[in-house]
């Protein structure tokens, strides 16, 4: 059948004038055009460069110290050992403590969970109030908040130390949670305000006609329809708070240091022999939480940083 | 008949006002109050504890006579200038490459952005290891036969800031790329079609049409990079600790050291006030362009 | 208060900073009346509706609904139902959930809520849609659901904020009819905001034409069409717009309107309060009040012209006619066989004309 139709089509087309013999059908496209080689070549080289540190960290963490001293940092491990990982997690020393990074990990979790919940709860309500329930002065406070986001932390560090000391929270995890909530507020409030402002105003009006009040509209209408932005805020906060170093080192004491601070203390400690494999294992361990979030969340992460960066 | 408005309406929106209390407190007490407090106390000779003994500009005199501060400022200027130029350049070029309707775009983007998920501490430690002169890049190149090859930024006071710059760019360019990509995607497809029909070469379209259209994104990116530059601290602490000597000090580290290590609060306050001043110099013109213009328009 | 009025608005004013959006506005709406607020964008019609609903705080004045002063009342306690342009359905709730949300907030018993929701769904024929979410509905179904949400409230007053603007032309016409039938069936007060004059003319018992935060004319569609109170109203209603001649009313042997070298006798024109006026004025006549063909010869006023442009609409034909250098629109029969360049005689009767004073542009 197919053959028959094909030939008949050719027969019909054959006697048609020479104008029909030129280019016809799909324009041929070479997969390996110069343009493609340039684009993909550049991207692959750049990607390799970006992946290099991760690769070096991983292979270093899987080598024994003798191998590191002899070989070069790019060569894959001859003999794979997980001992550095075990040591980094459970045995590495910071100061007098020798229970490894695990202490910092659990400190970070204990900081992270309440900080993320509290900062998002407060900022989302702020954003909602600013978007839908403006009151006299609300925009002024918001402007101060946003301008405040540009003030270097260094300017506000010490007054906060004093305030926390006054209420007896300096050096405690609670104090650090408050600090994270405060400094997360501008960007999160902006994020939520812009999102809630993009929700059609009529929806809000309809809910008011339906008799829902401030909290009713927030919990019953706004929150259920804004789950994606809550996820975005969560990604933003989890990575931000986990990666924090400055606040951790200032507002907690050695027993309660978050993972980043402890990692830095382990790697940059001047005592003893440098164990590069353990250092790299510890470094990867610290980076694992945000990396996991990053790879799982994919596009939402991008959206989060874009939303965080681009003001509406 | 009562008029529609009156003083008895203060309780209106009461829930919103109560809900906004944390924001109001943060804005007034921490951001305004804290900043004002630091500026005021930068004129005192506070040492271990803040005290109200005012000494005029003495702290600032000391600050600008301190070689550590001058090096910090110089480092910040070099790091800032290069970081701004290269972030924008690399970020835009990568975004333009990714915008060519290529295959595996998501994969490439994921690879280019992942460093941004990592902390500066992790970034600094990773690059400290790669740039280690005894084991890292320098040693690898030498072992390949180029015996005299020298690349040890972290151990050479002259170029140490460039070693930090490499790490900083590796961590941050992905973000700028993503912003630029979003900007490129926001440009009307018809613009490209029109340019194609007019026979304008692609690079010309980018330079004369697309980039001017992305003005807003560029400004955002610049503000973002600039505010990141001023905050740079963890990266230096992890990668060099300010060394060798004091050759890679930065202002943020100067502040921390003065406040918490050398019990010299007054110096810390003065230095942080200088940082604030720098930010004001950058942010105010931007805010004026961005928001002042809008109000008029 | 006057209980014969469903809604009374007294000296209402609203300003945002130095911008006055509504100015000393007074309006009474009768029980069961269908009132349309009509105007171009920015005239304050939606703002007025939002004030009635309590969604905007007024700067001055009072609002009464059902004789009760609701100026400071919460929207949900004003006894109103409201339908929005964007439907404003809660996206995470089903249609039934959308309809019942307000009733739940009001603390009504479950059985009653269910009964009301079912009744409203039946009236609007959306029963099969009750379990669906708004995203799974078509535009027309969404707007029905939105009307349903207003319906279940058993409110005395329905407020519509451009409810049909987001729909395509066909659906808009269908729903227009449905809203009219709904009003006939429920006979509660309805206030309907639109910028579409066809919706206004077809639906309204009375139309309030608004501009600059004030009501220019409040009258029946018939009156607004035939006796517009000002040149603005005259231009706003009718498409193509009314033709105007610039000139002067002169006395002598009966009043005449003189425009250029034309002189129109004004016998038959009904002056406001039967008070003839002289002086500079506008003479307006609608394209559909032009007389053409054989009857034109018998018209009191005759003009000779040449057709510049023809727009066949099927039911009618519109022609732009050049009369001594001035273009006017004429509505002809749909079957009229006319072409560019044809000569034509158009006539009209000043009884159908509208005269507006030159400077104030008010009807005279």
Describe the structure.
Chain A is mainly alpha-helical and 312 residues long. Chain A is 72% helix and 0% strand. Chain A has helices at residues 2-13, 34-61, 65-70, 83-90, 102-132, 138-150, 153-166, 173-198, 201-209, 214-225, 227-243, 246-251, 259-267, 276-297, 299-309. The longest helix of chain A is centred in the middle third of the chain and has 31 residues, at 102-132. Chain A is flat and about 75 Å long. The termini of chain A are far apart. The relative contact order of chain A is 0.12. By secondary structure, chain B is mainly alpha-helical. Chain B has helices at residues 14-19, 21-41, 58-65, 67-98, 105-117, 120-130, 137-143, 160-185, 189-197, 202-213, 215-231, 234-239, 251-261, 265-296. In chain B, helix 3 (58-65) crosses helix 14, helix 4 runs parallel beside helix 8 and helix 4 (67-98) packs antiparallel against helix 11 (215-231). Chain C is of the alpha+beta class and 364 residues long. Chain C has 2 domains: 5-235, P-loop containing nucleotide triphosphate hydrolases (Rossmann fold, 3-Layer(aba) Sandwich), CATH 3.40.50.300; 241-357, Beta Barrel (OB fold (Dihydrolipoamide Acetyltransferase, E2P)). Helices cover 23% and strands 34% of the residues of chain C. Chain C is built from 8 helices and 19 strands. Chain C has helices at 45-53, 95-105, 110-124, 139-151, 169-186, 197-203, 221-226, 231-236; strands spanning 5-16, 19-30, 34-38, 60-65, 68-69, 80-83, 157-161, 189-194, 206-211, 214-219, 243-250, 256-259, 262-265, 279-285, 301-312, 316-323, 326-333, 343-348, 354-357. Chain C has a 6-stranded mixed β-sheet, sandwiched between helices. A 5-stranded antiparallel β-sheet of chain C has the order 13-12-11-14-19, with no helix packed on it. Chain C has a 4-stranded antiparallel β-sheet with strand order 2-1-4-5, with helices on one face. Chain C is elongated, with a radius of gyration of 24 Å. In chain C, 42% of the residues are buried.
């Amino acid at each position: 059948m197919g053959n028959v139709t094909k030939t008949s089509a050719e027969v019909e087309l054959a006697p048609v004038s020479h104008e029909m013999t030129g280019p016809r059908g799909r324009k041929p496209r070479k997969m390996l055009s110069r343009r493609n080689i340039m684009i993909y070549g550049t991207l692959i080289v750049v990607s390799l460069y970006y992946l290099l540190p991760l690769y070096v960290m991983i292979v270093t963490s899987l080598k024994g110290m003798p191998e590191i001293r002899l070989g070069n940092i790019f060569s894959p491990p001859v003999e794979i050992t997980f001992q550095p990982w075990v040591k980094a997690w459970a045995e590495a020393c910071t100061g007098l403590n020798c229970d490894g990074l695990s202490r910092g990990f659990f400190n970070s979790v204990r900081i992270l969970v309440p900080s993320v919940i509290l900062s998002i709860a407060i900022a989302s309500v702020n954003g909602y109030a600013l978007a839908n329930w403006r009151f006299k002065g609300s925009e002024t406070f918001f402007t101060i908040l946003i301008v405040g986001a540009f003030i270097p932390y260094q300017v506000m560090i010490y007054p906060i130390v004093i305030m926390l000391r006054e209420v007896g929270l300096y050096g405690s995890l609670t104090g650090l949670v408050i600090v994270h909530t405060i400094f997360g507020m501008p960007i999160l409030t902006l994020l939520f305000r812009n999102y809630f402002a993009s929700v059609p105003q009529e929806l809000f009006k309809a809910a008011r006609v339906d008799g829902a009040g401030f909290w009713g509209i927030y919990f019953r209408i706004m929150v259920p329809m804004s789950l994606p932005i809550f996820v975005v805020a969560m990604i933003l906060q989890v990575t931000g708070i986990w990666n924090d170093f400055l606040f951790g080192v200032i507002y907690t004491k050695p027993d309660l240091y978050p993972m980043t601070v402890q990692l830095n203390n382990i790697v940059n400690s001047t005592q003893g022999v440098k164990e590069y494999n353990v250092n790299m294992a510890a470094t990867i361990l610290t980076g694992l939480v945000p990396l996991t979030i990053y790879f799982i969340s994919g596009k939402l992460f991008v959206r989060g940083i874009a939303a965080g960066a681009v003001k509406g | 008949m009562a008029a529609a408005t009156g003083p008895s309406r203060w309780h209106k929106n009461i829930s919103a006002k109560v809900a906004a209390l944390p924001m109001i407190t943060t804005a007034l007490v921490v951001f305004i109050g804290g900043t004002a407090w630091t500026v005021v106390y930068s004129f005192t000779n506070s040492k271990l504890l803040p005290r109200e003994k005012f000494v005029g500009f003495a702290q600032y005199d000391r600050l600008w006579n301190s070689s550590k501060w001058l090096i910090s400022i110089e480092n910040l200027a070099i790091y800032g200038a290069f970081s701004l130029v290269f972030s924008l350049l690399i970020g835009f070029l990568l975004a333009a490459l990714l915008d060519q309707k290529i295959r595996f775009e998501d994969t490439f983007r994921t690879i280019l952005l992942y460093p941004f998920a990592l902390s500066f501490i992790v970034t600094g430690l990773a690059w400290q290891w790669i740039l280690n002169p005894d084991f890292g890049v320098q040693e690898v190149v030498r072992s390949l036969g180029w015996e005299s090859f020298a690349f040890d930024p972290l151990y050479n006071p002259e170029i140490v800031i460039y070693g930090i710059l490499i790490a900083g760019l590796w961590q941050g360019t992905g973000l700028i790329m993503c912003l630029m990509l979003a900007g490129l995607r926001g440009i009307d497809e018809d613009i490209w079609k029109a340019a194609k029909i007019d026979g304008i070469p692609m690079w010309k379209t980018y330079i004369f049409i697309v980039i001017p259209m992305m003005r807003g994104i560029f400004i955002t990116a610049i503000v973002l990079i600039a505010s990141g530059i001023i905050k740079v601290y963890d990266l230096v602490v992890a990668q060099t600790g300010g060394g060798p000597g004091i050759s890679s000090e930065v202002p943020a580290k100067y502040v921390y050291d003065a406040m918490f290590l050398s019990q010299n609060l007054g110096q810390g306050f003065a230095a942080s006030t200088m940082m604030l001043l720098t930010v004001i110099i950058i942010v105010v013109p931007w805010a004026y362009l961005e928001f002042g213009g809008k109000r008029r328009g | 208060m006057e209980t014969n009025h469903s809604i009374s608005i007294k000296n209402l004013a609203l300003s945002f900073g130095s911008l006055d959006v509504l100015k000393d506005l007074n309006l009474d709406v009768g029980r069961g009346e269908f009132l349309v607020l009509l105007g171009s964008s920015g005239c304050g019609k939606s703002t007025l509706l939002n004030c009635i609903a309590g969604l905007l705080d007024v700067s001055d004045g009072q609002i009464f609904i059902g004789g009760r002063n609701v100026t400071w009342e919460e929207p949900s306690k004003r006894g109103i139902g409201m339908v929005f342009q964007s439907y404003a359905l809660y996206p995470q709730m089903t249609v039934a959930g959308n309809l019942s949300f307000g009733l739940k907030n009001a603390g009504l018993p479950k059985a009653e809520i269910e009964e009301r929701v079912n009744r409203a769904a039946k009236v609007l024929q959306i029963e099969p849609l009750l379990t669906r979410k708004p995203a799974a509905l078509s535009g027309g179904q969404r707007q029905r659901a939105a009307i349903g949400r207003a319906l279940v409230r058993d409110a005395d007053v329905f407020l519509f904020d451009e409810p049909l603007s987001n729909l395509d032309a066909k659906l808009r016409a269908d729903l227009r009819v449905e809203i009219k039938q709904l009003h006939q069936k429920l006979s509660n007060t309805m206030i309907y905001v639109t910028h579409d004059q066809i919706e206004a003319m077809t639906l309204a018992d009375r139309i309030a034409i608004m501009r600059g935060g004030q009501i220019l004319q409040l009258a029946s569609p018939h009156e607004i069409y035939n006796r517009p109170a000002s040149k603005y109203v005259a231009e706003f209603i009718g498409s193509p717009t009314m033709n105007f001649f610039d000139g002067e009313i002169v006395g002598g042997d009966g009043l005449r309107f003189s425009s250029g070298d034309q002189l129109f006798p004004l016998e038959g024109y009904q002056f406001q309060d039967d008070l003839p006026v002289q002086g500079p004025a506008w003479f307006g006549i609608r394209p559909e009040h032009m007389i053409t063909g054989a009857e034109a010869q018998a018209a009191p006023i005759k003009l000779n012209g040449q057709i510049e442009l023809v727009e066949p609409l099927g039911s009618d034909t519109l022609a732009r006619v050049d009369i001594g250098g001035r273009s006017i629109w004429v509505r002809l029969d749909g079957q009229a066989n006319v072409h560019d360049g044809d000569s034509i005689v158009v006539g009209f009767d000043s009884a159908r004309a509208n005269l507006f004073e030159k400077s104030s542009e008010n009807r005279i």
